[in-house]
Design a protein that fits this description.
The protein has helices spanning about 60, 70-80, 85-90, 95-110, 115-120, 145-155, 250-260, 305-310, 325-330, 350-360, 385-390; strands at about 35-40, 45-50, 55, 125, 130, 140-145, 170-175, 180-185, 185-190, 190-195, 205, 210, 215-220, 240-250, 250, 270-275, 280, 290, 315, 320-325, 335-340, 370, 395-400, 405, 415-420, 430-440. The protein is an alpha+beta fold. It has two domains: about 5-130, SH3 type barrels (Roll); about 140-440, Fumarylacetoacetate hydrolase, domain 2 (Alpha-Beta Complex). Strands 6, 7, 8, 13, 14, 16, 17 and 22 form an eight-stranded mixed β-sheet that branches. Strand 25 (about 415-420) and strand 26 form a beta hairpin. Helix 2 (about 70-80) packs across helix 4.
C-alpha cells in the first residue's frame, strides 16, 4: 500500500491560488486524472490532471514545445497519461504512476524552480471543459459488499431475515455491461422491462416504476494479470490505479422478477454513471484505516486475509447523495441531500475484491472497472439507495422543497459527491457524478 511521502504534506501549497482555497477538491496533494477537451470544440480528447479550478493539459505539457518539463520515467508516464484513453498509462504500473505524480507536484508547488509561466500556458479552466469516460473499459464487474445495505434490503421484506450465507465468506459480484457506462452529466431513458405483480399469473411489460440509484465507488484496474495467475492479496493494490464515484442505476421492479436464478440483467444494464476524475491510491494514503471484522462474524479464509489488509485496508472516503428534481431545478431551489456515509464501513476491501476476482484464474486488464457495490453505513441516514431510505415506498423521502420520493421520477438528477478530510491532512476531493433520468421510450 502506498506510503506517506512529501506529496502528502498538508502544509504544501501551489503557486496556483485556487488550489489553496479552503474546501478545494483538488489541492496539490490530490492531482487526479481525467480525459477532457474544451467544451463544444472538435479538439481531440486528451489526458489531464486537476489542480484547483484548472485542468493541467498533459498533452501540451509533455510536448517538446513546453520546454522539457519532464524527463526519464515521468516523461514516458506523462505521454501515456496524455492519450485519449488512460489504458497505456494504467499498464505502466506503480513506479510510473508515482514518477508522474511526484514530477507534477514539483512543477506545481509554490517554491518550484521550474518554469511556472510555461506550465500556466498548459492550464484550461474546468468550467470550460467536457469529459469522457477516461479509459477503454474491457470488462466491468459490480460487487455487493456492504453488509448494512444487504441487511437493510433484506429486512424491508423480512424483519427477521439475514444475508445469504455466502455474503460473509466471499465478495459477491456480477458481470456488468460496458456499453452504457457514461461520464458525469449522463442522461438516460427510464428502462422498459417485465415485472410480475403479486398474485399475478402472467408478467406485464412496461416502464420501470421503481427506479433507484446506488451510491458506489469505481475501482480502476491498473496493471492486469495473466490468465491462470491469481493476484495475491499482498499484491492486489499494486494492480489498482485509483478510485472514482460510480452510480449503479437500478430498476428494482424489473430486478426482483428477473434475478432468480442468475442475477441482475435488464435491471442493471441501461446506465452506469462515473465521475470524470480518478483519484490515485497514492493520494488516498493519509486516509487509510484499519479494516475490522467483528469477532462473532466469520473471519476471511487465508487467501483473503493479511496483517496489512487488517491494518490499513479500509479507506475513509466520505460520500454524499443529493437529488435535484425537475421542479427544484426550474425554481432554482437547489438539490436536497438524501444521505451521507463512508467507504470505511464496507464489509470487503478493494484489495480483497481484486484477490477474489482472480483466484479462480480470471485475468484482469488495464482499464477494467469494478463497482464497489452500494455503500451504506450502519446509521439511519447512511443508506446508499432510495429503496433503503424510503423502505421500498413505505416511508417516502421528503425533499427540501416539500416534494416526496419513494423512487426516482423523470427529470430527477442524482448527484454523488465524495471527499476525504481530517485534521492534519489535506482535503482530497472526487468532484461529482451527476446523472439525469429521462422519460421512457415506448
Amino acid at each position: 500500500m502506498p506510503a506517506l511521502n512529501h506529496t502528502h504534506n498538508p502544509a504544501a501549497r501551489s503557486w496556483l491560488a485556487s488550489a489553496n482555497a479552503k474546501g478545494c477538491d483538488f489541492p496539490i496533494q490530490n492531482l487526479p486524472h481525467a480525459v477532457f477537451r474544451r467544451a463544444g470544440s472538435s479538439e481531440a480528447f486528451r489526458g489531464g490532471v486537476a489542480i484547483g479550478d484548472q485542468v493541467l493539459d498533459l498533452a501540451a505539457l509533455a510536448a517538446p514545445a513546453a520546454g522539457g518539463q519532464f524527463d526519464g520515467l515521468a516523461l514516458g508516464a506523462a505521454r501515456a497519461a496524455a492519450q485519449p484513453a488512460l489504458n497505456d498509462f494504467f499498464a505502466q504500473g506503480p513506479a510510473a504512476w508515482q514518477a508522474l505524480r511526484h514530477a507534477l507536484f514539483a512543477l506545481l508547488k509554490s517554491d518550484t524552480r521550474h518554469d511556472t509561466d510555461g506550465v500556466r500556458q498548459c492550464l484550461v479552466a474546468q468550467a470550460d471543459v467536457e469529459y469522457t469516460v477516461p479509459a477503454r473499459i474491457g470488462d466491468y464487474t459490480d460487487f455487493y459488499t456492504s453488509i448494512d445495505h444487504a441487511l437493510n434490503i433484506t429486512r424491508i421484506f423480512n424483519p427477521e431475515g439475514d444475508v445469504t450465507p455466502n455474503f460473509r465468506w466471499i465478495p459477491i459480484a456480477y458481470h456488468g455491461r460496458v456499453s452504457t457506462i457514461g461520464v458525469s452529466g449522463q442522461q438516460f431513458r427510464r428502462p422498459m422491462g417485465q415485472t410480475m405483480a403479486p398474485g399475478a399469473a402472467v408478467p406485464t411489460f412496461h416502464a420501470c416504476a421503481r427506479l433507484d440509484y446506488e451510491l458506489e465507488l469505481g475501482i480502476w484496474i491498473g496493471q492486469g494479470n495473466a490468465a491462470g495467475e491469481p493476484i495475491p492479496l499482498a499484491q492486489a493494490e499494486q494492480h489498482i490505479f485509483g478510485i472514482c464515484l460510480l452510480n449503479d442505476w437500478s430498476a428494482r421492479d424489473i430486478q426482483f422478477w428477473e434475478m432468480a436464478p442468475l442475477g441482475p440483467f435488464l435491471a442493471k444494464n441501461f446506465a452506469t454513471t462515473v465521475s470524470p476524475w480518478i483519484v490515485t491510491m497514492e493520494a488516498l494514503a493519509p486516509y487509510r484505516q484499519a479494516w475490522t471484522r467483528p469477532a462473532d462474524e466469520p473471519q476471511p479464509l487465508a487467501y483473503l486475509d493479511s496483517a496489512a489488509n487488517r491494518a490499513e485496508g479500509a479507506i475513509d472516503i466520505q460520500l454524499e447523495v443529493w437529488l435535484e428534481s425537475a421542479k427544484a431545478r426550474a425554481e432554482g431551489s437547489g438539490a436536497s441531500r438524501l444521505s451521507a456515509t463512508s467507504f470505511r464501513h464496507q464489509y470487503w476491501t478493494a484489495a480483497q475484491m481484486v484477490a477474489h476476482h482472480t483466484v479462480g484464474g480470471c485475468s484482469l486488464n488495464a482499464g477494467d472497472l469494478f463497482g464497489s457495490g452500494t455503500i451504506s453505513g450502519p446509521g439511519p441516514g447512511e443508506a446508499g439507495a432510495i429503496i433503503e431510505l424510503a423502505r421500498a415506498g413505505q416511508s417516502p423521502v421528503t425533499l427540501a422543497n416539500g416534494e416526496q420520493r419513494s423512487f426516482l421520477s423523470d427529470g430527477d438528477a442524482v448527484i454523488l459527491r465524495g471527499a476525504c478530510a481530517k485534521p492534519g491532512a489535506a482535503r482530497i476531493g472526487f468532484g461529482e457524478s451527476r446523472g439525469t433520468v429521462l422519460p421512457a421510450l415506448g
